[in-house]
Amino acid sequence: MPPPDLRIALADRARGGTRQRVYDALRDALVAGRLEPGRRLSENELAEALGVSRTPVREALVRLRDDRMVEIVPQLGTFVSKISIGAVADAQFVREALECAAIRLAAGRVGDAELLQLQAIVAQQDEAHAGHDFDRFFVLDDAFHEALCEASGHGIAWSLAQRADGHLVRVRRLSLPVPEYMGEMIDEHRAVLEAVAARDPDRAEEALRHHLRMVLSVLESIRAEHPEFFAEA
Amino acid sequence: MPPPDLRIALADRARGGTRQRVYDALRDALVAGRLEPGRRLSENELAEALGVSRTPVREALVRLRDDRMVEIVPQLGTFVSKISIGAVADAQFVREALECAAIRLAAGRVGDAELLQLQAIVAQQDEAHAGHDFDRFFVLDDAFHEALCEASGHGIAWSLAQRADGHLVRVRRLSLPVPEYMGEMIDEHRAVLEAVAARDPDRAEEALRHHLRMVLSVLESIRAEHPEFFAEA
DNA sequence: GCCGCACACCTAGTATGCAAGCGTGCCCCC
DNA sequence: GGGGGCACGCTTGCATACTAGGTGTGCGGC
């Protein structure tokens, strides 16, 4: 019985190589939960579904394994990683370490243009909130954190945090459709932004750390709600 | 004119897949400077030199590009990245952020067995110092930092730091043959270890941060000595 | 009816072949 | 003699073919 819903859309041709497009498409499908944890993937099936050969699919999967999003078992198959409490804790640790270090720097060197950009992002988040547009809010949330890291002068912090963040993103996606959380998160963004604007590294770090830990507070309820997505360990 | 010294040894067969062995061999050759910055690599040459096909070579190179150790230019070639001041700063930032966060945790939860292990590593470093064995010291230095991260409960910190660390490792390799630095580094390891043993997160973080920044103090002299290894920017 | 073995299918790993693009060097023209 | 243009060879990117190994299934024996 072939899997029923392997419809993964590739972005427009010619933007980046095939490998990058396949990676993006797969990662998006994974974090959005369209490829549910535990499912078996096959290079052949993915290649056919995406209309490309096995080679770029394979290379994308290898990269996703580095992200701990899939597990490749030789001669057996490739599986969507179940959400592991340990992996979530690791992702949280990495993200806190990198982003908190970044924001301390950002608070010391942020310019007016960057502050305006951050404020604009938060304003757009208000709009998304008003329109109950979860997907848009998600994009803007990433944009906010990315802009913060960029302001630190070490944009790499965001690249690494995002790649290490797979398990956490899936949890967030599951938790997001609770409207009140969106409002809380925007408030926290404002608190972070104010501290950065005040050039107060300690307060900025504290606000960001609190913000980043919010997601953990709902982890257990998510797990109770979707136990099949989690590994036992 | 074919490159003269593409003799890269592969580790024993059957340990990990071919891709992993090729990656390890190439990375080792890169950080050791046997493949000097700016050099052009060719998938074909590497595959021939290593006695494997292009496929695992290609996948290893893609991963090394993620590490910023090589630059792949389509239809042109793959080049050993020159050491970039910006990339060194990024690597330093990432390593500081991850390891300092890890050691704070480690100071709060380290067990006696782990302390003994750390002490044993430092003792071995003394031996390497006495024997002027730079390579051995290098391995033991990595082991010390890895053990610290493991003691934090987030071994992933070491994995990520090490992967992001390519540019920094090359600098360290160039700077290492100065014997007095080895003694200083061991002293700093001791200071870090004492603070962890005393369960003092603040002092541990401070000692580690100071230790990690030592390498930067010699960066400019290294650059003056080997300008051909560095990018202009 | 149940347990064990063997076969067939499917998997990822690897090797090789083909296509497209860029750089370089030679050759022709001015 | 100098400059412009074309063609060749090299590169990586992608597609395809082949290999080795593991799993599950179905059949045969008990």
3D architecture notes:
- The structure is a homodimer of 233-residue chains.
- Chain A has 233 residues and is mostly helical.
- Chain A folds into 2 domains: 18-80, Winged helix-like DNA-binding domain superfamily/Winged helix DNA-binding domain (Arc Repressor Mutant, subunit A), CATH 1.10.10.10; 85-229, Up-down Bundle (Four Helix Bundle (Hemerythrin (Met), subunit A)).
- Helices cover 68% and strands 4% of the residues of chain A.
- Chain A is built from 11 helices and 3 strands.
- Chain A has helices spanning 18-31, 43-50, 54-66, 85-109, 112-130, 134-151, 156-164, 166-175, 179-197, 201-217, 219-225, and strands at residues 40-41, 70-73, 77-80.
- The first copy, chain A, has a 3-stranded antiparallel β-sheet with strand order 1-3-2.
- In chain A, β2 and β3 form a beta hairpin.
- In chain A, α4 (85-109) runs antiparallel to α10 (201-217) and α5 packs antiparallel against α6.
- The longest helix of chain A is centred in the middle third of the chain and has 25 residues, at 85-109.
- The relative contact order of chain A is 0.13.
- The mean pLDDT of chain A is 90.
- At the A-B interface, α3, α4 and α7 of A face α3, α4 and α7 of B.
- Chain A binds a DNA duplex (30 and 30 nucleotides) through residues 17-19, 42-44, 47, 52-56, 58, 72-78.
